[in-house]
Design goal:
The chain is mainly α. It contains seven helices and no strands. Helix 1 crosses helix 3 and helix 4 crosses helix 5.
């Protein structure tokens, strides 16, 4: 499985987790595999798990850079995409920041709206500048 598809699976898990906070990420992944929705993939599950485990730090960074927006007001698609991308930008060293941003924008276009994609691009661009210092 390529990284694009793996990210999409991780996004789906992160998005589902927004509605089922009490269910473990691994369990959501197992259910998705059992239902034929996901393929076994180490990158997907590790990215989703890392996003969950680092959610406090990730959410703080998103909120600091989403001027005028609280996390509770963000569309769930945007929040899931932002969490995934910020996790990748901060903690996955072998993925260039520009790739994380481009992949996030593509996910937003597929699952959200053009406005979501523009917002995500702007927030991630600001975050990228702050972490490259």
């Amino acid at each position: 499985m390529n990284r694009h598809r793996a990210r999409e699976q991780a996004f789906n898990i992160i998005f589902e987790k927004l509605f089922n906070e009490d269910v473990q990420t691994e369990k959501l992944f197992e259910l998705g595999v059992a239902e034929g929705l996901f393929e076994e993939d180490e990158f997907s599950i590790s990215l989703a798990g890392l996003t969950e485990s680092k959610s406090g730090e990730i959410d703080k960074l998103i909120e600091e850079n989403s001027i005028g927006w609280r996390l509770s007001r963000l569309p769930k698609v945007s929040l899931a995409v932002l969490r995934l991308a910020v996790c990748e930008m901060l903690y996955i060293e072998d993925v260039p920041v520009s790739v994380s941003i481009n992949e996030a924008v593509e996910l937003a276009k597929k699952y959200g709206t053009g406005e979501d994609a523009s917002f995500i691009n702007g927030v991630l661009g600001t975050i990228a500048k702050s972490i490259e210092v």
